[in-house]
# Entry
Amino acid sequence: MALDDAIAQGKGPKPGSLVLFCASGGGIALAASLWRWAGRKA
# Structure
């Protein structure tokens, strides 16, 4: 939701930027992924 809000305000990542997504779940479950941002298509 924070990424969507930033994009809507024109403050999101620029094409070519690296974006790190992190998540945690119940217990000791953790996850992360690193994506190269391509931007939105009009």
Notes: The longest helix spans residues 2-8. The chain has a mean pLDDT of 91.
